[in-house]
Amino acid sequence: MGLKVGTRAARLAKISGLVGLVGVAATGCSAEEVLRFGWPQSVTPQAERMRDLWTWSVVAALVVGVIVWALILWPVVFHRKKSEEMPRQTQYNVPLEFIYTALPLVIVVVLFYFTATTQTFVLDKEKEPSTTVDVVSFKWNWEFSYPGYKTPDGNPVRTVGTSQEIPLLVVPANEVVRYQLSSKDVIHSFFVPQWHFKRDTLPRPEKNSQDNVFQNTIDREGSFVGRCAELCGTYHSMMNFEVRALSPDKFRNYMDLRTRNNPQTGRAYTAAEALTAMNCGELCAGQAVTTKPFDTNRTVREASGNGR
């Protein structure tokens, strides 16, 4: 009888393993994609730490799930009613009760520890970031302002989107960038999927006890789509922007142009004009490469002006 039960259990384990293997192979995903469990590929150290937390949390959940499923299925399959005889009754089992009380506590403590350390790492702020950007949201647009860089008329370098042009947030790669968030009307949300990070932008963050500042380091050049992730009105779904990460030397060149007047127009270079003038391939394209403007009257008013 014991041999038969053992053989049946081994056969069941083999079938379950084969089904799992076929399921993973049928997805067509690489091992790295499987371990991300659906998360986008990360481009910042902070995003990678969050991806690690997500991966191992899911693995832990799957392990616990398999154990629970096994404990449920084992008596269903191997302890079915075989006669009218009443099986031996066990009222107390102190070691077992200790295990199923202590084990969940250990799991919660371990998950809490790794969650807290990951959150501390993600929200950490350096005193001297390389670049600071003021991110201002308003229906249905974005303004990106650089207080450390001034145009010839003495105002901060800034970019505002239009119906023809996606707002471009240009930052240096491999350097610490600080983002200071605020809103001019309703609550919006600053979200870049490949950063694995979003944060609400509030009209008065200081009045709402919200930390409206965060930092990150983009570890490579590239273009990354950004979105508003908080339902904010008619054109919420179209409130896109693009992050353009340039190498530090390209970013310095970009800012050098933004702080000078364009000889063709007699006014300060716009983001698109400066990138076009740099002529360094797709990353320096004047138009967005990850998303397109939407066909509506995107508000062109200055976010830093009146009209709260």
From TrEMBL:
It is found in: Cell membrane; Membrane. Residues 29-126 form the Cytochrome oxidase subunit II transmembrane region profile domain. GO terms for biological process: ATP synthesis coupled electron transport. It catalyses: 4 Fe(II)-[cytochrome c] + O2 + 8 H(+)(in) = 4 Fe(III)-[cytochrome c] + 2 H2O + 4 H(+)(out). Its cofactor is Cu cation. Its main location: membrane. Keywords: Copper, Electron transport, Membrane, Metal-binding, Respiratory chain, Translocase, Transmembrane, Transmembrane helix, Transport. It is an enzyme of class 7 (translocase). Residues 128-257 form the Cytochrome oxidase subunit II copper A binding domain. Binds a copper A center. The chain crosses the membrane at residues 55-77, 98-116. Its EC number is 7.1.1.9. One of its GO terms (cellular component) is plasma membrane. PROSITE patterns: COX2, COX2_CUA, COX2_TM, PROKAR_LIPOPROTEIN. InterPro entries: CcO_II, CcO_II-like_C, Copper_CuA, Cupredoxin, Cyt_c_oxidase_su2, Cyt_c_oxidase_su2_TM_dom, Cyt_c_oxidase_su2_TM_sf. It holds the Pfam family COX2. It comes from the Bacteria. It is a multi-pass membrane protein. GO terms for molecular function: copper ion binding; cytochrome-c oxidase activity; oxidoreductase activity. Subunits I and II form the functional core of the enzyme complex. Electrons originating in cytochrome c are transferred via heme a and Cu(A) to the binuclear center formed by heme a3 and Cu(B). Belongs to the cytochrome c oxidase subunit 2 family. This is Cytochrome c oxidase subunit 2. It comes from Streptoalloteichus hindustanus.
